[in-house]
Amino acid sequence: MRFRTILLVVAILLLAGFVALNVDVFTQPNPLSLGFTTINVPLGLVMLGLLLATLIVFLGSTIYMQSRHVLEGRTHTRELNAQRELADKAEASRFTELRSYLEAQAVTEQHRETALGTVMADRFAQQQQVLLARMEQMDNTLAAYMGELEQRLGQRASTINLPHDSNTTFR
Prior knowledge:
Shape: rod-shaped
């Protein structure tokens, strides 16, 4: 329990004890003036009644304020939940947009890599053709030099009178 509630209960109990101890004084009739007339009523009971009426009014107002705060709290909780749901939906939407953007970028990169692979394969094939042509040219040049050397050796061998075999090659 809260401190104020405990204090209120203790005060009511003390007042009830005080009234119980002095019940004969509280019930003694006294003349009271209402401004336009005078009546004989027990002053203690009138004061006790006024105290109870005040207590009831304050308790009613407290209950009203508490219920109002509870209702406002529920309203705020509903509004916060609605805002949270909106934020979650917006975040999910952003994640979906990011995912689609990244997928589009991945597809673009894949196309770019495929195109570069094709270009590289074409260039590699061209370079291979150029290399084969150069190797063939070098082979022809080497064969021509070898033929020329054999011819020169054949001419020298004929001048020296060595038997010349066409199948013999010098290394």
